[in-house]
Amino acid sequence: MPLPPNPRVAELKNRLDSKREAVRTLLAENPDHTRMTHGAVTQMSKLTDDIEALQVELDSTSATMMIHSGGEGPKGRNMGGTSIGEMIVNSDQFKDFRPHKGGASVEFDIPFEQKTVLDVATGFVPQSVRTGLILETPQMPPRIADLFAQTTTDQAAVAYMEETTFTNAAAETAENTTKPQSTLAFTERTSPVRKIATEMTLTEEVMADNAGLMDYINSRLPAMIQFREDQQLLTGNGTTPNLRGVNNFVGIQTQAKGADPTPDAIFKAMVLVFTSQFVPCDTVVIHPADWQDIRLLRTADGLYIFGDPSRPGPETIFGARLVQSTRQTQNTALVGAFRFGAAFARRTDLTIRLSNEHANNFTSNLITIVAEERVALVPYRAAAFCTVTGI
After folding, report:
1. Which parts of the chain sit beneath pLDDT 70?
2. Of 313, 302, 295, which is closest to residue 391 (Cα–Cα)?
C-alpha cells in the first residue's frame, strides 16, 4: 500500500534539490576548480555540509515512515548487513504484534550504520615530544683515589728508594770499648705510570642538532675513566698496561676470618698493620653485600649491634672509616693505613680532546672524542695494608 504524502519529506527534498542546484551553478562559474577564490571555496564547503545534513534528516524521516507502515526504509541504508525490514520482521516485537480494529502501530529503535571511529587503535597515535632528560645507567661512584696521599710526577715512572735493611745495633757501651755497628741498606723501587683512556665517535650532525649533547658526553667520558680508575686502584693485576691495585701489592698482609665473627677478623687485621707499621688503620674498603652481613649482626636478644634500624648506621668500624664499593672483591675486605701506605700520582690530569683527523673522519663528517689520564699507584708500604679473606 503506498504511503500518504508527507509534507516534511517534500520540504526536505525541495531544500536538497535547491542546494544541489547551487553547487552545480557554483561549479559552472568556476570551471578551473584549482583556482577558486577564497569566497567560492567557503561557499562550496557550506553547501556540501548543508547537503549532507539534509540527506541525513531525509533518510531518518523516511525510515520512521517505513517502520510505521511495515516497509523496509530507504534503499541502500543497511544496518551492519541487515535491512530495516528484515530487522523488523525478525524482531520479537513484530512476532508478538497482533493487529486490532482501527489499526495499531509499533515503534522500533533502528540504529543507523556507524562510521569507522578514528582512534589510537586505528593508527592515529598522538604525538609525543621527547624531553631533554637523558637517564643515565646506575654506576658505583668513584671513591678510592681520594683515600691515598696525592702527588704528581713528570716522569714515566715514580722512582724512590726503600729502606730494606735496618739493623739497629745500638747498645750500652763500656768506656774504652768498641761501639756496636748498625747497618742500613736501600733498594730502588719504581711504579710505572699507566694510561687509562677511552674514545667515542659521533657525527657532526648529531653534535650540531642536539643541544646539550656535548655537555653530557663531556661529563660521561670522564666518569668512565674514573670508574675504571677505581677498579684498577683496588684490583689491577700489575701486568702491563694495568696498574697494580692494593689487593695485589707485593708484601700485603692477610688475615683469614676462620671461625671469627667478621668484625673480629677486621680488628685482627688492624692489629697486624699497627704492629708491623706502627700506624693506625684509617680505612676499611668492603663490598656492600659483606657490609650488609656486618650491619645486620644482632645480639642473642635481637638488638642490632651496629645501631638501631630507625637511625642512620655508622659508616665506621673500630674507629676506621668504612667505604662501600662494588669494585672491591666480594668476601674480601681491605684494611689499611691508606694515606701512609701508598700515594696516588698523576702524570697528566684527565683530559678530553676532539678531532676529525682520524681514519676517514674528515670525509665522513665524524668527530672522535678521546678522554684519558696517566697515573701511577705507588706502594710505599705494602704491609700497611691487609686483606681479610673468607668473610
Report:
1. 1-5, 32-36, 38, 41, 62-124, 313
2. 295
